[in-house]
Structure formats: structure tokens, C-alpha cells
Fold these 2 entries.
Entry 1:
Amino acid sequence: MFTLFQTPQWFAGFDLLFDTITLLIALLITAYSYKLYKLSDENKFFYFSVAFALMSVGFLFKLGTYLTIYSPASQYAAAVTIVKVTNSQGIGSIFRNLLYRAGYFVQMASMLGSWLLLFFVSQKGRDRLNKMHERSQILLSIYLITLIAVVSTFEYRIFYLTSLVLLALIVLHLYENHRLRRSQNSKKVLLAFLLLLAAQISFAFIFIVPELYIVGELLTLAGFGTIAATYIAIQQKTKQMANSEVLR
């Protein structure tokens, strides 16, 4: 059975619970961002929605792949089905590993795509991704992300190091935004992405200390929880402002 790295055995299953919660948060943010886009017609909210939708796809494929790896029954069912379809034990084994790699590939490509899109949107000073030549950068980005994701299925550290770099750039832009605005929401968003950055650092060094996988999962959940709390606070503030307008 093909795996990217060995996770702590006693933690198997807990990470799926954490990722399920994170997936639900990502889906909620996707829906809320799209709602804001429909109300305001601002492109940045549309791109936020797409970015978190990509994250949702990444977490969904991670859950599916890891659930199969952790469950002997799922492994057996998959192996029997593939052998019957291919009518060969040897070919079935190769095809099974390819399916695992495909699951990892979709997970990695989706996550890298979301980080890159958030990096584009986070840049200040001009309205990003509205001009044609800026949108054309997405085509080049898709190619690079695809290439990195393919290579990462053979060497997972490339994926985490690339995610680390993209998140570091996002954090720099968010810090600049917070320095200018000094609002509680900008502070919370900055904290959330600092937690996600710390999670990628932890994941990048799993090959040295496997238990860092647990730290990375906890930091990822904390980061998404902070983003969710920020969105809830913004939504409540928006409702209060709307109610105030009605009372007037």
C-alpha cells in the first residue's frame, strides 16, 4: 500500500475527525464568501469563495484517501474490486497505488491552488485579478501547481515547503494590511494564517519527528477555527448594522 509518510498509529482516526471539522468550516466560509459576492458584486469575495472551495476539495480527498489507508476493510474491498476489473493481481497492485497517488495529487493541487489564489487576492495597492493579463497568470499558475503536485506525490516535502512559502507571502501581506487598519478582524485573520503557516512548518519536518504531524493537524484546526470565528463576528456586525438601518 502506497503512503506518503507514516503517521503516529495511535493518532489514526483523530486526524480524520479534525479534518472533517476543518472541511465543514471551509464549506461554510465558501458559502458565506459567495453570499457576500452576490450581495456586493466584488470579485475578491468570489475568489475567496473559490479558494475555500478548493480547500474543501483538498480536505475531502484527504479524508477519502486516509480513510482507505486506515481501514483494512476498505483496503480489502478496493483491492478485490481493482483485481476483478483489471483481471490481474500484478496490474491490480500497480493500479491501486496509482489511485492512492491520484488521491494525494488532487488533495495537493487543490490546496496549492487555494493558497496561490489567496496570495493573489491578498496583495494590496491595486485591484488584483480584474485585468486580463493578471487573470492569464492563473493559467501559468495551474501548470506550475500541477507540476508541483505530481512531483509531491513522490516527495511530500515539496508540497509542504511550497505551501509554507505561499503562506509566508500571504502572512506578509496580511501583516501589512493589519498594520494599516489596526482592526480586531484583521488581527484575527493574521493570527489564523500564522497558525496555518506554523502547521505547514510542522508538516515539513515530519520526516525528522513523526509526532509533528499531530502538531500540524492541531494548528490547522486552530487556524480554520480562528477564520470561522472572524467570519461569524463579521456576519454579526453586518446584521447589527442592517438592524440599525431598519430602526432608523
Entry 2:
Amino acid sequence: MRHTLLEILLLTIPIIANIGFFNTKLLKALSLASSSLELIISLLLYFEIPVKGIFLIDNVTISFLLIVSSIYLLSVVYSLKYIEAEEIKGIVSEKLYYVLLNFFVASMIFSMIINDYGLMWVGVELTTVASALLITTEYSEISLEAAWRYIIIVSAGVTVALFSIILIYYEYHTLTVTSILSSQPKDSLIIKLAVALALIGFGTKVGVFPMYTWLPDAHSESPSPISALFSASLLPVAMYVLYRVYEIYPLTDLFVALPTLSIITASIILFKQWHIKRMFAYSTIENMNLALIGLATGQVFGAVILLLAHAFGKAAAFYSSGVIIKTFNEKKIDEINGLYRMRITSSSLLLSSMAVTGTPPFGTFVGEFLILKTLVQSGFIIEFILLVIFLALIFISINYNVSRMIFSRPKYDRLPKEPRLMSLVSLISSIVSLGIGIISIIWGVIG
């Protein structure tokens, strides 16, 4: 009963927060309370696992829940000033922004904790509704185009995922996750096809080649706190659902080959990237696909460490990018310079860029090390060599651009005052990513 109560609270609190819709200040306060309670409940559930029944929460689930609830809290705090300063136009008002944000988080949580593949699919589809509208918050022609492209591509991918779910039901006559995973594995063509279709379908939201083309547009045109939720939360949620399908019948070769191709493609495009938020969006493709390789090769711990550290590091990257874009009114990397004068923001940007590129001792480095080590042990030597080369290219590309923005000679004599709350949220997020790595190394997980 206690388990069910906590899980129901986890699902309903973000929805209940929306009762403040008629008063902006109340809605903000309730959203802040909701995000705080979600993190507290996620931590409490950690001591109650495993939970099986209507809901399914195990060690893997709780890790993803902590990612979503943590970034939810950080994004709400960041939004208090970011959205307040934003001149919102069009269909998404300031109040509707928080309503959609809360609904977005509730749908992600539902996707993770429900013990049914069909309802997982419903949850993933629901995330599209809220997130598509959130992309248009800043209401420009480019953001509308990005939202439209996101809807078309992701809807196509989720439709493919639906066929995967139908095939699973046809084979097992149930969609209950625990029942299927505890039953005798079936070596059938139908199940193999179902898992392969899931990689394409749910992989669309994870950022797997060739269906990732929506990702750079959506991430770059969304408000920065929403970009953070996209990269740090939405994509890992889709990966969680994909992993649960993968557990039915592991197609390891396919789940290593396509993510490797995704990382190679992203690194080549990233090498010539000129837009600060698109640069970090392509970095998300790299990190998500590397984590997917970890899950596919059995290195679940390394994948979880990578996703946790990436969540905080990438959120910090988008938070600091939001501060920079507001300060310079510019998204082009070449036009952003002299950031060292913005001490908190420049520190956050530098730390977050190191985090998302796997610089030691950040948690992403620990996760990448474990995944690449397992890749070699599993016999994927060619994939290992390719990944090392193209991960190095991504590392150089991102850190070179960030160094130019921070340490280049400033073109402006004076800069506007640095928004302290937004900058501090960004810095704290990047430090958490560093802390995850340091703690992991102290515990000797890479030994």
C-alpha cells in the first residue's frame, strides 16, 4: 500500500500543481513545490525497491527517476527568472508554460514506472504533445518549424514503435513487463522483428540514426530550461522504454552498430557547427547512443553513471547557453566572446563542456570508460576503434568552441549584469556532474 501511495503521488503531484493555473504566482510556487516533492519521493522510493505490480520500479528505473526529478527541479528554479524575463508571444503564455512543463514531467514519469509495454508507449506519445508546444514558447518562425518537424518525425517513429508493441502482444498475449521478462525467452522471428522495430521507433526519440534529425532543431529553438529537459530527461526516458523492450530478446549486434553510426554522423556534423545550442544538441546524440551501447553490451552500471552525469552536465550547458544568449542576443559561436568577464556563467559553461565530452574526472568519463572497456571485452574491436576516434573529434570540437567563447578578446566594453539565479543553477548542475565522477572514482568503479 505504501509503495502504491508513493507511486501515485509521483504521478499526480505535477498534475495537481496545475490547479494554480488562474494565478501565475501561485502556479510558480506550486510548480516549485511539485518539483521538490518529486525529487524527495524518488529518493524515498530508492529504499523501497524492487516494486512490482501495477507499477514496476527496480534499480534501473530509480536511476532514471532521479534524473527526471532532479532536472525537473533545476529547470523550474531556472524558469522562475528565465521565463519572467522572456517576452512570450503566441499560443504559449507564461501560465501555460508551467502547465505544459508539469504535464510533460508527469507523462515522462508515467512512461517509466508503469508495468505495461502498451501504456509505456502511450506515455511516450503523451510526452510529444506537451513538449511540441513547449518548443514554440519563444514563438519565432524557426521554432514553429522545429516544432512541426519534431511532431512529424517523432510521430512517425512512435508509429513504428506501436507495431513493435503489437508484435510483442501477438507473441506473448500480454503486455505486462514483469510477466514477459520472467517468462521463457522466445527465439522467434516475430520477437526479433519487434525488438528491431523498437530500436527504430523509440530510437527516434533517443536520437538514433537515421531518425535523429528533429533533435538539433527542437533543442536549439526551445527555451533553455526545456532544452535541458529534452536532453537530460526526455531522451533517457525513451531509452529506458527501449531498454525494457531490448531485454525481451537482446539484438546486441544491431544495438551496437546503429548507435556507433549515430555517433560517427553526429561527430562529423558537430565539427563544423556554428550555433551554440545546436552544438550541445549534437553532443546529446553522442552521449545517448554511447549509453545505449552500454545497455546493449550489459554495462548497465556504466550507462547509468554516464546518463546521470550527462543529465547534470548537459542541463548546465543549456542553462549557461540561455544566459549567454540573453546577454549577447546572439546564438552564433563566432559572435560570442570575452565570457571570462561573466565569472559564474563562464565557469559553468567550461565545466559543463568538459562534462559532456567525458573529461576526467567527470562522471561521463567514468561511464564512457566502463562502456568502452566492456565493448572491447565483448569483441567489438572495430566499433571500439571507431568510437575512440570520433569521440576524440567531438571532444576537440566542443572544447575548442567553448574555449574561444570564454577566452577570446571581448568586443564589448561592458556587458549587462549577470543573472545570478540562472547562473548559479547552471553552475550547481555542472558541479553535480563533477561530483558524480569523483565519488565514482573514489569508490574504485573503474578499477
